[in-house]
From TrEMBL:
This is Type 1 glutamine amidotransferase. Signal peptide: none annotated. It comes from Aristophania vespae. Pfam families: DJ-1_PfpI (PF01965). One of its GO terms (molecular function) is transferase activity. It comes from the Bacteria. The keyword Kinase does not apply. Belongs to the peptidase C56 family. Keywords: Glutamine amidotransferase, Transferase. InterPro entries: C56_PfpI-like (IPR006286), Class_I_gatase-like (IPR029062), DJ-1/PfpI (IPR002818). Residues 56-236 form the DJ-1/PfpI domain.
Amino acid sequence: MKNDNSRPEVILRHLASDGEPATPTLDTLQFLGAEENREIREGIFATPAIATLRGKKIAVIATDGVEDIELVAILTYFKRHGADTHLIAPKCPKTTAASGMIHPPLRKTHIFSIHYVSPGRWHKIDHFLDDVDPTDYDAVIIPGGTWSPDSLRADKLTLNFVKKAHKAKKIVAAICHGPWVLADAGLLKGRKATAWWSMKKDLENAGAIWEDKAVIDDEIITSRCPNDLLSFVFTIAVKLKS
Protein backbone atom coordinates (compact mmCIF):
# COMPACT_ATOMS: atom_id res chain seq x y z
CA MET A 1 0.00 0.00 0.00
CA LYS A 2 1.32 3.44 -0.95
CA ASN A 3 2.33 5.82 1.79
CA ASP A 4 -0.22 8.63 2.16
CA ASN A 5 2.52 11.17 1.48
CA SER A 6 2.92 9.83 -2.07
CA ARG A 7 -0.61 10.80 -3.11
CA PRO A 8 -0.84 13.82 -5.44
CA GLU A 9 -3.51 15.53 -3.31
CA VAL A 10 -1.28 15.28 -0.23
CA ILE A 11 1.61 16.83 -2.17
CA LEU A 12 -0.72 19.61 -3.31
CA ARG A 13 -1.50 20.48 0.28
CA HIS A 14 2.21 20.43 1.13
CA LEU A 15 3.04 22.79 -1.75
CA ALA A 16 0.20 25.20 -1.03
CA SER A 17 1.07 28.59 0.43
CA ASP A 18 -0.87 29.86 3.42
CA GLY A 19 -3.07 32.95 3.33
CA GLU A 20 -3.65 35.61 0.69
CA PRO A 21 -0.56 36.38 -1.42
CA ALA A 22 0.94 39.82 -0.93
CA THR A 23 2.31 39.95 -4.48
CA PRO A 24 1.47 38.45 -7.90
CA THR A 25 2.22 34.74 -7.69
CA LEU A 26 2.22 31.46 -9.54
CA ASP A 27 -0.06 29.60 -7.14
CA THR A 28 1.11 25.99 -7.05
CA LEU A 29 -2.11 24.71 -5.51
CA GLN A 30 -4.24 26.40 -8.14
CA PHE A 31 -1.92 25.34 -10.96
CA LEU A 32 -1.75 21.66 -10.05
CA GLY A 33 -5.36 21.54 -8.86
CA ALA A 34 -6.78 22.83 -12.16
CA GLU A 35 -8.67 20.18 -14.13
CA GLU A 36 -6.73 21.17 -17.25
CA ASN A 37 -3.53 20.23 -15.45
CA ARG A 38 -4.71 16.87 -14.11
CA GLU A 39 -2.30 15.04 -16.43
CA ILE A 40 0.65 17.11 -15.17
CA ARG A 41 -0.33 16.52 -11.53
CA GLU A 42 -0.80 12.78 -11.89
CA GLY A 43 2.04 12.23 -14.36
CA ILE A 44 4.65 13.96 -12.22
CA PHE A 45 3.53 13.53 -8.62
CA ALA A 46 2.09 9.99 -8.64
CA THR A 47 4.56 7.25 -7.73
CA PRO A 48 5.11 4.93 -10.72
CA ALA A 49 4.62 1.18 -10.37
CA ILE A 50 8.18 0.57 -11.62
CA ALA A 51 11.22 2.82 -11.05
CA THR A 52 12.31 2.80 -14.68
CA LEU A 53 15.23 5.22 -14.27
CA ARG A 54 17.09 3.43 -11.50
CA GLY A 55 20.84 3.67 -12.11
CA LYS A 56 20.59 7.04 -13.88
CA LYS A 57 22.06 10.24 -12.41
CA ILE A 58 20.41 13.63 -12.89
CA ALA A 59 21.95 17.05 -12.20
CA VAL A 60 19.41 19.85 -11.73
CA ILE A 61 21.18 23.21 -11.77
CA ALA A 62 19.53 26.19 -10.09
CA THR A 63 20.16 29.12 -7.80
CA ASP A 64 18.13 31.75 -5.94
CA GLY A 65 15.02 32.82 -7.83
CA VAL A 66 14.30 29.47 -9.46
CA GLU A 67 10.60 28.93 -10.21
CA ASP A 68 9.36 26.67 -7.42
CA ILE A 69 6.89 24.54 -9.40
CA GLU A 70 9.50 23.80 -12.08
CA LEU A 71 12.21 22.85 -9.61
CA VAL A 72 9.87 20.73 -7.48
CA ALA A 73 8.29 18.99 -10.47
CA ILE A 74 11.62 18.08 -12.06
CA LEU A 75 13.19 16.83 -8.83
CA THR A 76 10.05 14.90 -7.87
CA TYR A 77 9.56 13.22 -11.24
CA PHE A 78 13.08 11.85 -11.58
CA LYS A 79 13.38 10.82 -7.93
CA ARG A 80 10.07 8.96 -8.09
CA HIS A 81 11.22 7.15 -11.21
CA GLY A 82 14.32 5.92 -9.41
CA ALA A 83 17.02 8.28 -10.71
CA ASP A 84 19.74 9.54 -8.38
CA THR A 85 18.75 13.21 -8.63
CA HIS A 86 20.85 16.08 -7.24
CA LEU A 87 20.15 19.78 -6.83
CA ILE A 88 23.40 21.49 -7.79
CA ALA A 89 24.04 25.19 -7.23
CA PRO A 90 26.76 27.83 -7.08
CA LYS A 91 28.07 28.62 -3.63
CA CYS A 92 26.67 31.63 -1.77
CA PRO A 93 28.05 34.71 -3.52
CA LYS A 94 30.47 36.93 -1.66
CA THR A 95 29.13 40.45 -1.26
CA THR A 96 30.28 43.76 0.17
CA ALA A 97 28.40 46.35 2.21
CA ALA A 98 28.53 48.66 -0.80
CA SER A 99 26.45 46.23 -2.87
CA GLY A 100 23.64 46.26 -0.34
CA MET A 101 23.21 42.50 -0.75
CA ILE A 102 22.50 40.39 2.32
CA HIS A 103 22.42 36.58 2.40
CA PRO A 104 21.08 34.79 5.49
CA PRO A 105 23.24 31.97 6.93
CA LEU A 106 20.88 29.35 5.46
CA ARG A 107 22.01 30.39 1.96
CA LYS A 108 25.28 28.56 2.59
CA THR A 109 23.42 25.25 2.25
CA HIS A 110 20.13 26.15 0.48
CA ILE A 111 18.75 28.20 -2.42
CA PHE A 112 15.51 30.17 -2.32
CA SER A 113 12.76 29.67 -4.90
CA ILE A 114 10.01 31.98 -6.13
CA HIS A 115 6.38 31.72 -7.23
CA TYR A 116 6.56 34.11 -10.21
CA VAL A 117 7.56 37.17 -8.14
CA SER A 118 6.33 35.99 -4.72
CA PRO A 119 8.71 34.41 -2.18
CA GLY A 120 8.87 30.63 -2.41
CA ARG A 121 10.83 28.40 -0.04
CA TRP A 122 14.30 27.12 0.79
CA HIS A 123 15.65 24.05 -1.02
CA LYS A 124 18.61 22.03 0.25
CA ILE A 125 21.61 21.97 -2.08
CA ASP A 126 23.00 18.47 -2.67
CA HIS A 127 26.28 19.58 -4.26
CA PHE A 128 28.04 22.76 -5.29
CA LEU A 129 29.01 23.20 -8.92
CA ASP A 130 32.73 23.10 -8.27
CA ASP A 131 32.47 19.86 -6.27
CA VAL A 132 31.04 17.63 -9.00
CA ASP A 133 31.95 16.48 -12.50
CA PRO A 134 29.23 16.83 -15.16
CA THR A 135 30.46 13.69 -16.88
CA ASP A 136 29.32 11.70 -13.84
CA TYR A 137 25.70 12.52 -14.74
CA ASP A 138 23.45 11.18 -17.47
CA ALA A 139 21.46 14.41 -17.77
CA VAL A 140 21.82 18.07 -16.82
CA ILE A 141 18.57 20.02 -16.43
CA ILE A 142 18.06 23.75 -15.89
CA PRO A 143 14.66 24.88 -14.58
CA GLY A 144 13.37 28.41 -15.11
CA GLY A 145 12.22 31.42 -13.16
CA THR A 146 13.69 34.64 -14.47
CA TRP A 147 16.23 35.28 -11.72
CA SER A 148 17.92 31.90 -11.45
CA PRO A 149 18.84 31.47 -15.14
CA ASP A 150 19.82 35.13 -15.39
CA SER A 151 22.35 34.58 -12.60
CA LEU A 152 23.53 31.24 -13.92
CA ARG A 153 24.21 32.50 -17.44
CA ALA A 154 26.78 34.90 -15.98
CA ASP A 155 28.40 32.15 -13.90
CA LYS A 156 31.49 30.62 -15.52
CA LEU A 157 31.21 27.41 -13.49
CA THR A 158 27.66 26.85 -14.75
CA LEU A 159 28.55 27.57 -18.37
CA ASN A 160 31.57 25.26 -18.21
CA PHE A 161 29.44 22.58 -16.54
CA VAL A 162 26.82 22.48 -19.30
CA LYS A 163 29.41 22.76 -22.07
CA LYS A 164 31.42 19.87 -20.64
CA ALA A 165 28.24 17.79 -20.25
CA HIS A 166 27.25 18.43 -23.85
CA LYS A 167 30.74 17.65 -25.13
CA ALA A 168 30.56 14.34 -23.26
CA LYS A 169 27.25 13.63 -25.07
CA LYS A 170 25.16 13.84 -21.92
CA ILE A 171 21.54 14.97 -22.11
CA VAL A 172 21.28 18.74 -21.66
CA ALA A 173 17.83 20.26 -21.14
CA ALA A 174 16.25 23.55 -20.03
CA ILE A 175 12.75 24.92 -19.57
CA CYS A 176 11.18 28.40 -19.41
CA HIS A 177 14.02 30.93 -18.95
CA GLY A 178 16.54 28.09 -18.50
CA PRO A 179 17.57 28.17 -22.20
CA TRP A 180 19.25 31.52 -21.48
CA VAL A 181 22.05 29.48 -19.91
CA LEU A 182 22.36 27.22 -22.94
CA ALA A 183 22.39 30.24 -25.26
CA ASP A 184 25.19 31.91 -23.31
CA ALA A 185 27.09 28.61 -23.32
CA GLY A 186 26.90 28.66 -27.12
CA LEU A 187 24.96 25.40 -27.32
CA LEU A 188 21.90 26.59 -29.27
CA LYS A 189 23.54 27.99 -32.38
CA GLY A 190 22.02 26.37 -35.46
CA ARG A 191 19.58 24.28 -33.39
CA LYS A 192 15.82 24.36 -33.13
CA ALA A 193 14.87 25.56 -29.65
CA THR A 194 12.07 27.02 -27.60
CA ALA A 195 11.69 28.84 -24.27
CA TRP A 196 9.42 31.31 -22.50
CA TRP A 197 7.91 33.40 -25.32
CA SER A 198 9.60 36.70 -24.40
CA MET A 199 12.94 34.99 -25.06
CA LYS A 200 12.31 34.44 -28.77
CA LYS A 201 14.68 37.24 -29.82
CA ASP A 202 17.29 36.19 -27.26
CA LEU A 203 17.42 32.70 -28.69
CA GLU A 204 17.41 33.92 -32.27
CA ASN A 205 20.25 36.34 -31.47
CA ALA A 206 22.14 33.35 -30.05
CA GLY A 207 21.75 31.60 -33.42
CA ALA A 208 18.89 29.28 -32.48
CA ILE A 209 15.98 28.48 -34.78
CA TRP A 210 12.91 29.42 -32.72
CA GLU A 211 9.85 27.17 -32.70
CA ASP A 212 6.75 27.68 -30.55
CA LYS A 213 6.31 24.08 -29.36
CA ALA A 214 5.88 22.45 -25.96
CA VAL A 215 9.16 20.55 -26.30
CA ILE A 216 11.93 20.52 -28.88
CA ASP A 217 14.59 17.85 -28.94
CA ASP A 218 17.28 18.87 -31.41
CA GLU A 219 20.05 17.03 -29.54
CA ILE A 220 19.43 19.57 -26.76
CA ILE A 221 15.96 19.54 -25.12
CA THR A 222 14.14 22.82 -24.53
CA SER A 223 10.64 23.64 -23.34
CA ARG A 224 8.46 26.72 -22.81
CA CYS A 225 6.67 26.92 -19.46
CA PRO A 226 5.19 25.08 -16.43
CA ASN A 227 2.27 23.82 -18.51
CA ASP A 228 4.79 21.87 -20.61
CA LEU A 229 6.46 20.22 -17.60
CA LEU A 230 5.11 16.71 -18.15
CA SER A 231 6.09 16.68 -21.82
CA PHE A 232 9.50 18.07 -20.85
CA VAL A 233 10.38 15.48 -18.20
CA PHE A 234 8.86 12.65 -20.27
CA THR A 235 11.03 13.58 -23.27
CA ILE A 236 14.13 13.51 -21.05
CA ALA A 237 13.09 10.18 -19.50
CA VAL A 238 12.56 8.55 -22.90
CA LYS A 239 15.98 9.72 -24.01
CA LEU A 240 17.55 8.39 -20.81
CA LYS A 241 16.08 4.96 -21.45
CA SER A 242 17.08 4.82 -25.11
